[in-house]
Specification:
binds ligand F0G, 6-stranded mixed β-sheet, alpha/beta, single chain
Length: 449
């Protein structure tokens, strides 16, 4: 089944470079096992000659595709016909300047922007990807789907699955996901399978199950999901008056976002729609720092697509030998075998990227600052602010540069981490509640002047 003849899938391995029709749901190159990209014959697509032309779509907001923060940019992810496109109002997210958080991280007033992806329908950035991936699922006629998840993917998949009437199974590591997210997958009607293991175990299992049972896979191995996630960058540019920032700072888990962002900027530059590509910082949690280790210590690079696989294999063999399982309070990014590692290395190459790891303590303090002075976020999202603080201290990011941090998930996703931080006085910005007897004069005495 051909889709639009403008798009195809292509293996990222330059020594293979096999191409496939977009009508196939394959998710890894059948020839060599590498990741696949969605690619476009741009000469067959009527892409506007300037990005600001997309603003005209705001006049047609009663058309759901123009209202969607993903499909508003449809020429830049033109892999399926309109009749298959799915939207539930994703991408109505906002970029806010925040001078108090800027001061905390050492950026001059007016130059730090926070992109609140928690404002999506399921409360995280995943909805951008799911709008695109579920459109592909409909295009290929899928009737059941699955994913592995640290929580947000499962919430988003469950929501889109019932909106599209697909049967849905989600795999989560037992005891590894925040309650807000677990509650969503159950509430949205997914079959939730809690595997005794961590996310990496779930990721392996879900691939086996999808292959055996022919389920449609919705993890970020799915190249169409990443096409949807490119639009987060378009919206940042849009909200900056069609300018690109100097830096994008993003938490890194399975490395889908960073991969998608690098692809977005590469394509925009190739199309002449931007003049320069911003730099990107990808922030791991210290307890799940595979990317940081491989890039900063082992000097692993994209190397024009010929990534040194032995470095990766040796590292993973060592993790296995040590029976290592990642641990961080930022459970969303508690991942040690990120499936998009190679695409992320490509993004680092495209965006002259840097990688850092931050401790749980730094994450929780940064989260408290975003909560106190901004709209709040979940722990993994705050890794971006904690990482930015490192990078300004190291003078890699300068105080007079314009920085956009991606706040990937809503604060209510993980109330336990928030309550523990404040109630148990775990950090320098803890704001514990005060116990009071049920007596007016005693209560009045407690009110701070
Ligand atoms: N932030 C949040 C809130 C997330 O849920 C995730 C990933 C990330 C950051 C990392 O993004 O994988 O693109 O590097 N959550 C996935 C899940 C793994 O299953 O919900 P990434």
């Amino acid at each position: 089944m051909s889709t639009t003849d403008a798009a195809y899938q292509k293996c990222i391995n330059p020594d293979c470079a096999a191409e496939f029709d977009c009508g196939q749901a394959i998710f890894k190159c059948p020839a060599c096992g590498e990741l696949l990209d969605a690619q476009y014959n741009w000469d067959k697509i009527q892409v506007p000659d300037k990005l600001s032309s997309f603003a005209e779509r705001w006049a047609n907001r009663d058309n759901p595709l123009d209202f969607s923060g993903v499909w508003r940019f449809r020429e830049l992810l033109n892999f399926c016909r309109d009749k298959y496109k799915v939207t539930i109002g994703e991408g109505q997210t906002i970029l806010q300047q925040n001078d108090t958080v800027a001061q905390y991280v050492g950026i001059r007033p007016g130059l730090l922007y926070l992109q609140y992806e928690g404002l999506n329908p399921s409360g995280s950035f995943k909805d951008n990807g799911m709008a695109a991936a579920f459109s592909h699922a409909r295009m290929v006629g899928a009737d059941s789907c699955a994913c592995a998840s640290t929580g947000n993917t499962s919430a988003s998949v469950a929501l889109y699955a019932h909106s599209c009437r697909l049967k849905c199974t989600v795999f989560i590591g037992s005891g590894r996901i925040a309650f807000g997210k677990l509650s969503q997958s159950m509430d949205y009607g997914a079959q939730t399978i809690q595997i005794q293991g961590d996310f990496d175990d779930c990721m392996r299992r879900v691939q086996d199950v999808c292959t055996k049972l022919g389920l449609y896979l919705l993890n970020s191995l799915n190249p169409f999901r990443l096409e949807g996630q490119k639009t987060i960058m378009y919206r940042i540019i849009e909200q900056m008056g069609w300018q690109v920032p100097d830096w994008i700072v993003v938490p890194g888990g399975n490395l889908g976002n960073s991969s998608a962002f690098g692809k977005a900027f590469y394509e925009l530059k190739q199309l002449g729609l931007i003049e320069r590509i911003p730099r990107m910082a990808i922030i791991n949690a210290a307890g799940a720092d595979t990317l940081t280790h491989l890039v900063n210590n082992k000097k692993l690079t994209w190397n024009k697509g010929r990534v040194d696989q032995t470095v990766i294999d040796d590292y993973y063999a060592d993790l296995t030998a040590r029976n290592f399982s990642p641990h961080t309070c930022a459970s969303a990014i508690e991942i040690s075998r990120p499936v998009n590692l190679k695409k992320c290395l490509r993004a680092i190459d495209v965006c002259n990227g840097v990688v850092r790891a931050v401790t749980d303590e730094e994450i929780c303090d940064a989260k408290a600052i975003i909560g106190k002075y901004g709209l709040g976020c979940e722990p993994a999202s705050a890794a971006s602010i904690a990482g930015l603080k490192h990078l300004t201290a190291e003078s890699i990011i300068q105080p007079d540069q314009r920085v956009a941090c991606i706040l990937t998930g809503h604060p209510l996703k993980d109330p336990n981490v928030t309550v523990d931080y404040h109630k148990e006085n775990q950090g320098q910005f803890s704001n514990p509640p005060t116990e009071a007897p049920n007596q007016l004069d005693e209560i009045i005495k407690l009110i701070k002047p």
